[in-house]
Sequence to fold (302 residues):
Amino acid sequence: MKRQLPGIALAVSLAWGCGGGAVEIPTLELGGAGGARLMNGTAKTPSEAYENAYSQLTRAHYNVRRNLDGRSQNQYGAREAMKQIVGCLETMRTCVVPAGQAPFDPYLVRYAGWVKELDNGTWGGSFLTDFDRTEREVKSKFNPAGTELLAEFPSAPAKKPEPRRPADPLLTPDQIEVPVSKTPAPAEPAPPKPAEPARSDASLRLLYKAWSAAHVELLTGVREKKPCRPKYEEVVESLRLMKAQVSDERASKIQIYIEYYGAVDEKTRGFSALPEKTTEKDIVDELEVAARVIRKEFNPDK
Fold:
């Protein structure tokens, strides 16, 4: 039977002293096949690495909130805890099968954006509300019980040696044959080639530009408190058409951001009202999270 205990926290606290900074003590596992071991050690399987990273999410989220408490704010501590969440999600992403990796991307972008906001001191508004909601989504969506994990860590493929080119045989003068000149028969005219369909990347470029323009107009409408529903519909429609132009894997990524825009639309009641303690800038920043990834992944001119 395995037992998990705090890493002998009391003994370490007495040895090191209980100073101002809190020391994170890794969990100790007892009773395993190899005896006692620290749970933050090198994982032997993707399943073990995934579960270890998932188990650290609760404490890391708690540390973000604790360090942003109004009575004793510590933005540096909150930023480091947020970076730990990013690291956990990156580890979890590498442990799932390739088809399950894309859903992690918008959350990695969101948490990385929060790291930057904490670093610059620009967090605020509905930050804590969005942070709590996102924590619930992450824990529910990426629970190990419902996640398909790799059976083993992928190993680097061995480099195949290049085949040696056989040496050219030495030719003597009496082995050289002079080709006999023959008049070739007149070739039959080749049948006309059928007209090639328009390249899909040209269509993708046009659709990308349509999405980009609609996105900018949507942001302008939010900032100026104008009706934004038509621009939101143009954004989503252009993304749906882009989705039909790309491979299945990239189409799955686009679908994630279609749903991301939909979540913002739902939160703002069709871009007609702001949630409590939320400003127009908060909504603009949230929309730009999706836009940064779309521009990076789907701009055909890059």
